[in-house]
């Protein structure tokens, strides 16, 4: 809205003049204008409160608020003007012009007295609109800036009672004076008086009286015109005071503007043109038509309605005025060469702007766009019919202006949808538009960015039109003949835009910088689009802006815009290649002029891609990139990354196998495809460097020019195998300065020329050195030319395209792996083997175990090995390792200290070494894990330790288990007599055999042991060990069954029996207590093989009970040596008690045998005696058990049957004792 | 000379915001495209900003289920872009030239300036039908055209699809029953 007078287009708010607050330095300049002067003798109020009030007034200034109803409904209602004690109101009526006064005196003008009009009226000679102009913008200015609706005058209200009367009188006269001046001025400005009481007085009736007095004397209304600020008011009260004043006088001020409206409307309705002060004398005698006057009145009515914030009324007035203006009688009637024509056009614009504002104020957005549109169409129609046509630069300039105006109005209206965070790009049609009505898309009000963009397009059209001006029209005035100037005036529309000689100046002259105008407009548009995150559109406009900068040859600015644009634009990522290309070429153009070599090279690299359109005149040779570029001072070093540039080279990297092992040969391929434009020159790289992540060394492929003519190699796919060598190389030692980070790399050489459309496949193979995952991360293509260095870094990323392994003659093989550029390198498989020699099937407890471990070196070279063996399990014993061969003491053992365990030393390839593992005897059966770990180096690679571990299970079991039978026997020795005295007692006997006088008893311990072994074992000996005795007995044992020399061979799961005689004797004869024996069975056994060691297995025997105080009956059998087939059956009754016992004996006859002996008897036994009763039996059977022998011995006293215990050669069942009768031949 | 809207450009934009297909149609009175192919490309690309902003808004508000984005924006008085998004994230954009066609003999209905809300639905339905038919072709691999890596993609090269687009663009006019 630059072209329009600010007052013309600004929104109108009531004007409030505040005078008498603060020091009076404000607005001195105003005093110089001609007008009615309000002056006052009273000094301005300068107290602190006054300053605060002043600030509050300034804060409530409504000037510059956004144009919408929301903002104005608040506290800010007035345009506030702060003045001192003096103020000048403009003259209401013009003075009588001198000339007319002169005329008056001489001519016979009948008019008695000229009518005076406003100095801005077309009726007043000397006014700018005299005699036929429409509106002077100063008229709006007068009401908005000069003539207030209310004049607030602040006075101090003194507290001194002595001065009160004097002071009040002074006040009264001053107020009355001001009032008088105001009323004389002709304006209906209201005078408001505000009294600020001085600091210290207390409110009292006296003050009330004084106030009433003043009010009466000045005729001010106490409610609306006279305000009093009580003393010592708080800041809140001060603020409230200002607000009260404003809110109280606001309706009055609105009334003031309503009165002005009424005045205008009255004049309009009168319908007659007032007579001018003096008739026009110069130029045309034409005066403003009555329709023109109506336009004037409608404009005034609209402005006053705006003052009152009545936008609907304002729109009505403006529309009426607009229609009248563009109607047949006003605009049409003005000659197009006249300056009035432009003025009328300007007024039409102002009408339209004000209408647009009012529509937006009421949120009629679609109506506003339609209004905007219709105004343009009407003006175009006018210009085409009456003016210079709409195909001039002037028209385009106005179109641009008109779009900019719309953008600015929308901005000023600050529509909530566009200002808040919501992402609306346009407004939906307001409710008054019926749904389903046909709408132009632009009629949905778009945000200002679109309007600025529209303006920039019109500016471009304007430039195109301007550039088409023929040269003869472009010469400055004064150079060309008058006739030409005249024709120029008829050809070119210069409404609000410069003359042709400025619009498109001749070379060397100053004129309009179209590009700058366009850039300004674009910049505003970009800011708006950026606010709404329309990044792609911003990119597009940035490109246009840069193009304009280049047009102005402002290369630096263009480069500053384009360089980041080229880097971050979304077009490349999203594949809009035509846009990328456009930006690329533009950037190259700018960079060439600035001399940014790096950028040129980068752009050239990208433009080689086949995605872009081929430009026939371009060389497409990256090495010639900087040819002809002068300003490049330093040699550029360019590093490009694949995500930043749409490169024509693309590389993939595949390993043939997904897994490999350390030490194995691994094959991999780098395939480089060039999708350069077919006409481009081949690109030769200096080196390609492949970086790995993980356990592989970087690979460098260097260029080696091949001398042979390789034109025949122009096949689509070219496979070459590159041999690699290990080197230490600095990473671009020339670049990094110090060649310190020298790393081991693999290096190879090949021809690194990439032709357009060709796929080069480089096959490599190398040994895998380190276990772990290795991933090819990136390939860096380095190009070194004499003008620049270029590195293109491509990361190998997962693509959806299947990875391909290239074979000979372009055979492809798909690799079905998620990521073929990764290899898993497994550790080298150990080839050292460990195995046991002569491992037994089963090992037993109580056995010293010796395991023989053979360590076999299966590697191709010698290894230096050490062995670590552990037995893992519950209470595992420590074990010892021993080298079987004595020749192990070699010097290598010292060197291989780093390896844990027993050092075995060097084992030659395919040789072996024997280690003995000694495990001490273990008592309890258990299961252990035997873990053997061999760690070794190869002589050829002392760095890499290799581990081999073997775990076997070792289960130990008991070889034997046994059960026992403990039965009584008849001691052969006679019992000591209870009645004899033996003198030899206690004398001369050996000290250990002391005093054994008690009863001796014989027992038989029968042990049946069972072999759990897996093989035959030789039992060498078996014996009983007496562990302890309880109850004062002496005990000796005797092996009853002898072991043959060479032992008994016990086969698995067989039962063997061993009998032992146990002799016990009480130490004292009087001791009758029960005694026990604790014994164990010791089996000495060995394995059934040569020189096996003898092991002893101790088996526990349950506690044996030896009782001696009860009488017992033992049966025994003997076979008669004389009488054939006679069996002696003896029953021995032992009375070991000290009582005299009587037993009844009863022997029953049996069918199995005949017997002789006592059939029934009574036996009497003295204490400590025994007696044997013999029966002679003649059995009827041979070779069989006979019985049961029903012999019942009964204690007569206790009536208790004694059980007869069998001894050897007998057995017992539930009925009685059974005897063995041998067959005949054995008797 | 009454003018009515016509289609100036039809664009199919892939999931990766990459152009899949662009058809440009001539406008009256010169019977030549209103803009260069580059300008149409940029215009189509600029609609992505709006698609993104609207999708984000739809996520929070839960709207936009139908996929019809309606008017995206009007770039000037003649060209306006309308959009549609399929469930798979493929965007159809129709750029309408508001004065692209000279009204024929049926001018008796009066000047049909502007568009109704539902006028473009027909175009998008036809485009979607054509696109679905393209997808049914077993040799058409959608992943090739919008790779899951999220960058770029090939353009549609189907002659039949191009023909369909041409037919839609040429036969559409406001208020027709079918294209």
Automatic annotation (TrEMBL), chain A:
> Which residue stretches belong to region Disordered?
269-289, 726-754
Using the record's annotation, list all stretches that form the Gryzun putative trafficking through Golgi domain. Answer: 638-1222
Instruction: Cite the InterPro entries for this sequence.
Output: Gryzun, TPC11
One Pfam family this chain carries?
Gryzun
Top-rank taxon of the source lineage equals Eukaryota
Q: Where is the Trafficking protein particle complex subunit domain?
A: 340-610
According to the UniProt entry, the coiled-coil residues are none
Q: Write out the biased-composition intervals (Low complexity).
A: 280-289, 726-739
Q: State what protein this is by name.
A: Trafficking protein particle complex subunit 11 domain-containing protein
**The species this protein was found in:** Amorphotheca resinae ATCC 22711
Automatic annotation (TrEMBL), chain B:
**UniProt cross-references to InterPro entries, sorted A to Z:** Longin-like_dom_sf (IPR011012), Sedlin (IPR006722)
Q: Give the record's GO biological process terms.
A: endoplasmic reticulum to Golgi vesicle-mediated transport
Membrane-spanning intervals of the chain: none
Mind telling me which GO cellular component terms the entry cites? cytoplasm
Gene3D superfamilies reported for this sequence: 3.30.450.70
The name on file for this protein is: Sedlin
Annotated organism of origin: Amorphotheca resinae ATCC 22711
């Amino acid at each position: 809205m630059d072209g329009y007078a600010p007052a013309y287009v600004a929104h109108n708010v009531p004007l409030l003049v505040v005078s008498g607050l603060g020091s009076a330095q404000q607005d001195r300049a105003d005093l110089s204008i001609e007008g009615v002067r309000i002056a006052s003798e009273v000094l301005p109020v300068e107290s602190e409160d006054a300053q605060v009030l002043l600030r509050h007034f300034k804060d409530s200034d409504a000037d510059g608020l956004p144009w919408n109803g929301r903002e104005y409904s608040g506290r800010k209602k007035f345009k506030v003007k702060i003045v001192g004690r003096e103020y000048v109101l403009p003259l209401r009526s013009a003075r009588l012009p001198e000339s007319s006064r002169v005329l008056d005196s001489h001519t016979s003008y009948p008019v008695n007295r000229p009518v005076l009009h406003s100095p801005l009226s077309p009726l007043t000679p000397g006014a700018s609109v005299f005699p036929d102009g429409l509106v002077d913008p100063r008229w709006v200015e007068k009401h908005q800036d000069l003539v207030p609706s209310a004049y607030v005058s602040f006075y101090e209200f003194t507290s001194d009672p002595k001065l009160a009367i004097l002071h009040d009188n002074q006040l009264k006269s001053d107020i009355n004076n001001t009032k008088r001046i105001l009323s004389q001025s002709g304006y209906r400005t209201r005078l408001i008086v505000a009294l600020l009481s001085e600091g210290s007085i207390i409110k009292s009736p006296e003050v009330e009286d004084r106030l009433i007095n003043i009010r009466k004397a000045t005729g001010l209304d106490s409610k609306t015109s006279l305000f009093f600020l009580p003393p010592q008011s708080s800041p809140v009260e001060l603020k409230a005071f200002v607000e009260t004043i404003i809110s109280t006088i606001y309706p009055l001020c609105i009334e003031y503007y309503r009165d002005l409206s009424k005045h205008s409307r009255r004049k309009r309705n009168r319908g007659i043109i007032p007579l001018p002060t003096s008739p026009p004398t110069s130029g045309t005698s034409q005066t403003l038509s009555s329709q023109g006057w109506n336009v004037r009145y409608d404009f005034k009515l609209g402005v006053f309605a705006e003052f009152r914030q009545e936008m609907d009324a304002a729109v009505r007035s403006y529309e009426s005025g607009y229609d009248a203006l563009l109607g047949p009688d006003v605009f049409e009637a003005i000659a197009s060469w006249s300056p009035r024509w432009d003025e009328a056009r300007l007024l039409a614009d102002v009408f339209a702007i004000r209408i647009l504002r009012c529509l937006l104020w009421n949120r009629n957005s679609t109506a506003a766009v339609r209004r905007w549109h219709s105004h343009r169409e009407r003006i175009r129609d006018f210009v085409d019919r009456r003016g210079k046509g709409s195909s001039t630069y002037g028209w385009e300039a106005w179109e641009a202006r008109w779009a900019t105006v719309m953008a600015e109005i929308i901005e000023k209206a600050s529509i909530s949808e566009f200002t808040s965070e919501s992402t609306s790009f346009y407004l939906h049609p307001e409710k008054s538009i019926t749904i389903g009505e046909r709408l132009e898309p632009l009629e949905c009000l778009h945000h200002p960015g679109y309007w600025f963009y529209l303006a920039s397009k019109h500016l471009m059209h304007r430039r195109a039109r301007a550039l088409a001006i023929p040269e003869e029209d472009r010469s400055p005035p004064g150079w060309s003949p008058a006739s030409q100037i005249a024709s120029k005036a008829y050809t070119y529309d210069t409404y609000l835009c410069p003359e042709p000689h400025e619009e498109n100046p001749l070379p060397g002259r100053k004129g309009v910088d179209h590009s700058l105008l366009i850039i300004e407009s674009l910049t505003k548009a970009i800011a708006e689009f950026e606010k709404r995150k329309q990044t792609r559109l911003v990119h597009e406009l940035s490109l246009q802006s840069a193009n304009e900068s280049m047009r102005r040859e402002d290369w630096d600015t263009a480069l500053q815009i384009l360089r980041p644009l080229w880097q971050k634009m979304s077009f490349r990522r999203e594949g809009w290649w035509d846009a990328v290309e456009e930006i690329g070429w533009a950037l190259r153009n700018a960079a060439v002029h600035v001399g940014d070599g790096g950028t040129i090279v980068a752009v050239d690299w990208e433009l080689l891609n086949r995605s872009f359109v081929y430009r026939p005149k371009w060389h497409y040779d990256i090495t010639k990139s900087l040819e002809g570029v002068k300003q490049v001072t330093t040699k550029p070093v360019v590093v490009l990354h694949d995500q930043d540039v749409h490169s024509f080279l693309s590389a993939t990297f595949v390993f043939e196998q997904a897994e490999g092992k350390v030490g194995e040969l691994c094959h991999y391929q780098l395939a480089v495809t060039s999708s350069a434009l077919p006409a481009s020159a081949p690109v030769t790289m200096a080196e390609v460097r492949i970086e790995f992540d993980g356990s592989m060394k970087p690979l460098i492929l260097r260029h080696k020019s091949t001398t042979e003519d390789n034109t025949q190699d122009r096949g689509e796919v070219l496979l070459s195998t590159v041999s690699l060598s290990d080197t230490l190389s600095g990473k671009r030692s020339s670049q990094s300065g110090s060649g310190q980070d020298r790393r081991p790399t693999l290096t190879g050489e090949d021809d690194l020329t990439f032709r357009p459309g060709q796929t080069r496949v480089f096959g490599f193979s190398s040994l895998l050195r380190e276990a772990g995952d290795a991933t090819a991360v990136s390939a860096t293509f380095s190009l070194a030319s004499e003008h620049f260095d270029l590195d293109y870094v491509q990361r190998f990323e997962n693509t959806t395209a299947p990875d391909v392994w290239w074979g000979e003659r372009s055979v492809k093989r798909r690799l079905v792996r998620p990521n073929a550029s990764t290899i898993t390198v497994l550790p080298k498989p150990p080839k050292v083997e460990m195995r046991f020699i002569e491992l037994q099937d089963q090992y037993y407890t109580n056995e010293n175990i010796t395991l023989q471990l053979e360590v076999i070196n299966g590697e191709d070279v010698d290894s230096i090995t050490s062995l670590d063996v552990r037995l893992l399990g519950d209470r595992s014993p420590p074990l010892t390792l021993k080298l079987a061969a004595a020749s192990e003491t070699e010097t290598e053992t010292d060197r291989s200290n780093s390896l844990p365990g027993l050092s075995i030393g060097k084992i030659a390839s395919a040789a072996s070494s024997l280690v003995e593992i000694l495990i001490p005897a273990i008592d309890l059966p258990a299961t252990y894990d035997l873990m053997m770990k061999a760690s070794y180096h190869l002589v050829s690679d002392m760095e890499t330790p290799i581990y081999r571990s073997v775990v076997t299970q070792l289960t130990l079991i008991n070889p034997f288990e046994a059960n026992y039978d403990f039965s009584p026997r008849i001691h052969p020795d006679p019992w000591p007599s209870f009645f004899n005295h033996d003198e030899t007692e206690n004398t001369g006997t050996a000290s250990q055999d002391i005093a054994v006088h008690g009863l001796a008893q014989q027992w038989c311990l029968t042990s049946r042991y069972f072999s759990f072994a897996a093989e035959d074992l030789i039992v060498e000996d078996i014996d009983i060990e007496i562990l302890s005795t309880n109850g004062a007995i002496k005990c000796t044992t005797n092996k009853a069954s002898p072991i043959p020399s060479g032992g008994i061979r016990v086969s698995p799961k067989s039962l063997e029996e061993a009998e032992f005689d146990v002799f016990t004797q009480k130490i004292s004869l009087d001791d009758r207590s029960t005694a026990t024996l604790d014994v164990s069975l010791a089996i000495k056994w060995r394995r059934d093989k040569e020189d096996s060691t003898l092991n002893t297995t101790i088996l526990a025997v349950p506690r044996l009970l030896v009782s001696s105080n009860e009488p017992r009956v033992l049966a025994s059998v003997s076979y008669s040596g004389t009488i054939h087939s006679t069996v002696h059956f003896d029953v021995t009754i032992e009375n070991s008690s000290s009582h005299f016992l009587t037993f009844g004996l009863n022997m029953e006859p049996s069918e199995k045998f005949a017997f002789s002996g006592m059939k029934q008897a009574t036996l009497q036994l003295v204490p400590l005696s025994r007696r044997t009763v013999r029966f002679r039996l003649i059995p009827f059977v041979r070779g069989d058990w006979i019985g049961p022998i029903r012999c019942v011995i009964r204690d007569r006293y206790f009536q208790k049957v004694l059980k007869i215990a069998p001894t050897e050669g007998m057995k017992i069942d539930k009925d009685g004792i059974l005897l063995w009768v041998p067959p005949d031949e054995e008797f | 000379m009454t003018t009515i809207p016509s289609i100036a450009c039809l664009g199919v934009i892939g999931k990766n915001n990459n152009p899949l297909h662009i058809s440009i149609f001539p406008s009256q009175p010169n019977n030549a495209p209103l803009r260069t192919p580059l300008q149409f490309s940029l215009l189509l690309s600029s609609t992505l900003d709006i698609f993104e902003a609207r999708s984000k808004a739809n996520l929070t508000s839960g709207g936009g289920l139908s996929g019809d984005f309606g008017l995206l924006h009007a770039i000037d008085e003649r060209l306006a872009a309308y959009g549609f998004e399929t469930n798979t994230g493929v965007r159809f954009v129709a750029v309408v030239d508001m004065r692209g066609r000279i009204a024929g003999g049926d001018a008796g209905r009066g000047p049909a300036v502007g568009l109704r809300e539902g006028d473009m639905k027909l175009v998008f339905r036809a485009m979607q039908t054509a696109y679905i038919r393209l997808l049914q072709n077993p040799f058409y691999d959608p992943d090739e055209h919008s790779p899951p890596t999220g960058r770029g993609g090939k353009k549609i090269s189907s002659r039949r699809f191009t023909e369909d687009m041409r037919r839609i663009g040429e036969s559409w006019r406001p208020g027709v029953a079918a294209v």
